[in-house]
Amino acid sequence: MSETLDRVRPYIRKHFQARDKHEFVPGKTKIPLIIPSYGADEVEEALESMLSTWVTMGKKVKRFEEMFAEYLGSKHAVMVNSGSSANLLTLSVLTNPLLQDRIMPRTEIITPAVTWATTVYPIANVGCTPVLVDVNPETMNIEPEEVETAIDPQTSAIMPVHLLGCPCEVDELAKIASDHNLYLLEDSCESTGAEYKGRKVGTFGDMGTFSFFMSHHISTIEGGMVVTDDDEFYEYLKAMRAFGWIRDLREGQKHAMEHSGIDPRFLFVTYGYNFRPTEVQGGFGIHQIGKLDGFIDIRRENAAYWDKRLSSYKDVLMTPREPAGTKHVYFGYPLTIRPTAPFKREDLVGVMERVGIETRPIMAGNMAEQPVMKQLPYRVVGDLSNSRMIMRNSFFFGNHQGIGEEEREFIADCISGYIDSVSKK
Asked: Which of 76, 162, 216, 287 is catalytic?
């Protein structure tokens, strides 16, 4: 196996060196929303796993979990096959009948109206009711005041989302959760590495979730993680990730002795899922985690450049705001066209797309307006005016390690050139 890897390594490295050398031609070279963040190191690690034939969850997954927990400053980390699965697993643990202080069916979980669909779906999947509240138009994050208003006797948890790399006011949310004896679950899928007052997001609540999809800050192709400091939650996370069996459990031997008539390899103590990641994904993560801070630096440099270039257009554009005491990691660079502007979102988006700058709406927009919600029980608190405005007036473009000085300058020129041309009419 080692000889085989040694023979192919030069070709793999040559391939990625060629990929990373490209000439940017303004208006012709596409600036995509994502450029995969992996390279030769990850591919070689994946090949090693495949050649060994040990490809399901094993030592590499465990190593990545340990590295990720250390990076965040969390006690435990459990890898799964996606960020969406991470959200479902987290809520499934908290609604498990074996948990003494569990979330009861038909209770309510408060979450922002502007988010991705799989923040909302899992709440309904576990038999609870999503309660959608409005967001701040500048940060696009859940408003603590809206959360306070939404709390009633049926409320069991708060599930904020650190949207597009921007940290929520998580200490305020933690205080609200504590005051009302509610669980706090942080959806940090778009904000790996973001910080609030010097502490990584995802570590403030009872559990935090992360995504390593191709478009995210680091990638394991598909993949996700749940982190927690709670030992009991950690045991449930491990069991329910893989069918509910006792493998990997601290008290696995105790369970085996209590049920000696059942093969301990196939002893199930709770219900669960098959959310296991592969060793290929774990191997990717081992290399990606060391590159994360460098990727974040690039994103922050790009964002600072666009902030400066677009600062003179505040009368027509709302640009992202980095709240005081936070470290924004800019999943993308969002823009909101003010309702009073002499042009619409579609006008600017059309200009950008025609010259190869890829754009997309803000996640799923206002989830309350999505037709799928007709299939789910849910409640809305307030008029969601900011969420409805974001649905119609906001979008974002790519901000990642593949955007350099030429690309970011071209993007700024395109936006400013269009606004200047409109203002002269």
From this structure: 216
